[in-house]
Specification:
Structural class: alpha/beta
Distance between the termini: 61 Å
Helix content: 25-40%
Number of strands: 14
Largest sheet: 7 strands, mixed
Order of helices and strands: HHHHEHHEEEHEHEEHEEHEHEEEEH
Radius of gyration: 27 Å
Strand order of the largest sheet: 1-2-3-4-10-13-14
Length: 392
């Protein structure tokens, strides 16, 4: 397949950089790694289309040197989100400026509508440190098993004590490979490996006997592997990954992470202005509406009227939000936008969901319906627009 021309990326970044970092033999940049992995990948042509849109628009202003450095940086995904937002807002009719307060710190974009400025701060939220660790551990295990011929399928249950690249994880993987050899030799149909540390593991076979030492290892094991015979030899060992069920179950804390990021990003917005924070959450497939609203608007509280005696019927419950949501704590943010991108065949489908502030204080600028809809879909939050929301 012929390599794309990348006319606009070359115009902005230079031929030498594109040839070395996108099409070179040993690229270090994210775009080059994608191109080397798959010459038909969607990300390189999509980035080219965004650069073309920015460079060709008469409604978008930018410093070429600043944008060049941002595209060359490792954090290019955040830069793409900024470019997507700039192009989208320009198409809506805004006049858009990148880095409007540079060289001072400030918002990523300024978008003007008929002389009214809106300041937009953008952040891409990827996987958490916990999710990154889990993903790296999984990749390390699977890459070894995928290249190991066997006639078994394995189910790996790993605690969060294992770090990617650690000696303990390497020893655990080595124990899996040793177990596969043992099972092949014995012709076992199933088995379970209990691993606590190097030299501290036991392979439990259906017809085997276990002594006190084995039982002790099984109690301490935090890496367990179940083996199932498939009846035929495969070029690799298929595997699935699970985490142990925790007792008691731990609550989802996505809302706490979002609130921490929101508190940090609001500092980039000027006071007394129309401030927008946009989160690109395309990688967070499991992020729920419940977590988003909990972060922005506060915990849901259910209250029941007081009863005077054990036999008295309980009255109608009352549902409300507590006052610990992010938006009630700041006057700088008029709305938060959550963006999800689906990339296919070099083009994108982007869904933008708008969450207006519920703060009614006089120091907060609330946006009306027309303003809010220019940033995305309001869903069932129209009641929070300036003309619909009660004050206070």
């Amino acid at each position: 397949m012929a390599a794309p021309n990348l006319t606009y990326l070359r115009k902005l970044l230079g031929d030498a950089w594109v040839d070395a970092e996108v099409f070179g033999e040993k690229p270090s940049h994210w775009l080059g790694l994608w191109q080397k992995k798959d010459s038909a990948n969607a990300w390189v042509p999509y980035t080219e289309s965004l650069v073309q849109a920015v460079l060709s628009s008469k409604q978008i202003s930018f410093d070429a040197g600043v944008l060049t450095n941002k595209l060359k940086s490792p954090d290019i995904v955040s830069t793409l989100a900024e470019m997507e937002s700039a192009v989208f807002l320009a198409e809506q009719g805004f006049t858009v400026t990148f880095e409007p307060t540079a060289p001072l710190k400030g918002p990523d974009l300024r978008a003007d509508w008929e002389g009214v400025p809106y300041f937009v701060e953008i952040r891409t939220i990827g996987r958490s440190e916990y999710e990154e660790r889990r993903n790296s551990v999984t990749n390390e295990i699977f890459s070894k098993l995928n290249s190991t011929p066997s006639s078994y399928r394995v189910r790996v249950i790993v605690s969060d004590e294992y770090e990617p690249g650690s000696a303990k994880l390497r020893e655990a993987i080595a124990a899996i490979l040793t177990s596969l050899d043992v099972l092949k030799e014995r012709g076992a149909k199933s088995a379970r490996l209990h691993f606590a540390d190097k030299g501290d593991a036991v392979l439990e076979l259906p017809d085997g006997s276990l002594n006190d030492k084995h039982q002790s290892i099984m109690r301490r094991a935090d890496f367990t592997v179940e083996f199932e015979h498939l009846g035929k030899q495969l070029a690799g060992t298929p595997a699935s990954y699970f985490e142990p069920i925790k007792h008691p179950p731990e609550p989802v804390k996505d809302h706490e992470r979002m609130k921490r990021i929101l508190q940090n990003k609001r500092k980039q917005l000027p006071s007394g202005a129309r401030g927008i924070i946009l989160f690109d959450v395309s990688e967070l497939f499991m992020l729920s509406e419940f977590s988003i609203e909990r972060a922005l608007y506060g915990d849901t509280v259910v209250e029941f009227p007081r009863v005077n005696s054990p036999g008295e019927a309980v009255g109608q419950e009352n549902w409300r939000r507590s006052r610990n949501g992010f938006l009630l704590q700041t006057s700088r943010v008029s709305a938060v936008v959550f963006q999800r991108r689906e990339l296919k065949d070099g083009s994108s489908k982007i869904v933008r969901q708008v969450y207006p502030t519920n703060r009614g204080d006089a120091d907060t600028i609330r946006l009306n319906l027309a303003e809010l809809k220019r940033f995305g879909d309001l869903g069932d939050h129209e009641h929070l627009s300036a003309e619909n929301a009660p004050l206070g």
